[in-house]
Specification:
Low-confidence stretches: 1-6
Distance between the termini: 29 Å
Strand order of the largest sheet: 1-2
Shape: elongated
Strand content: under 5%
Radius of gyration: 24 Å
Mean pLDDT: 85
Length: 185
């Protein structure tokens, strides 16, 4: 169990992996997205360890538990952490969209194969169309949703989280041991 372990989330909360990487708290992610949209200034008070937004009076980070006396708060989230979020979201998006497009392709091909493979449907344009249209409509809703929304989401999250963990480990090595972090780069 990592030191970033928090109580189990309620069903209304989003999934928080217990993999030793404190990125990204919901508050930090919301802040970075708002900054990227120009909705909020990038400066503030952030945990010196996990960069979750905190108040100036905070004694310990509510996300990672790091005391502010051990690692003082910072005024801005480092650009490498912001970039890690951008890479994470981009990776997740590519996986989800890729699997959704595979679902669209399957939804187009399967009804067509059924219509062309059944001689009665193949010989009758009206009957073939009457069968193809609902199969296409249902398939276009079901296959992309299952493949993109479930399979792509899970695979995308795993791939993106691996990149985020690697970026975090490299950042911590460079932040905590500047001489060692540069020599391994």
């Amino acid at each position: 169990m990592s030191r970033y372990r928090l109580p189990e989330p309620s069903p209304e909360e989003r999934y928080r992996p217990d993999d030793g990487c404190p990125l990204f708290s919901p508050r930090l992610e919301a802040h970075l997205v708002a900054v990227s949209r120009g909705e909020t200034p990038e400066r503030g008070t952030f945990c010196g360890n996990c960069y979750t937004p905190i108040s100036r009076e905070t004694k310990a980070c509510p996300h990672c538990g790091e005391p502010t006396t051990q690692r003082p708060p910072v005024d801005i989230v480092p650009a490498r952490i912001t970039e890690a979020l951008r890479v994470q979201r981009s990776t997740e998006s590519r996986w989800v969209n890729g699997f959704a497009y595979i679902g669209v392709l399957i939804a187009m091909v399967l009804p067509l194969a059924a219509v062309l493979g059944i001689p009665t449907l193949k010989d009758s344009l009206i009957l073939g169309t009457a069968v193809y249209a609902p199969l296409l409509f249902i398939g276009m809703r079901v296959f992309p949703a299952i493949l993109g929304g479930y399979v792509g989401d899970r695979k995308g999250f795993a791939a993106a989280r691996a990149k985020t963990r690697a970026a975090w480990e490299q950042w911590v090595a460079e932040r905590d041991h500047p001489a060692r972090g540069k020599s391994s780069a």
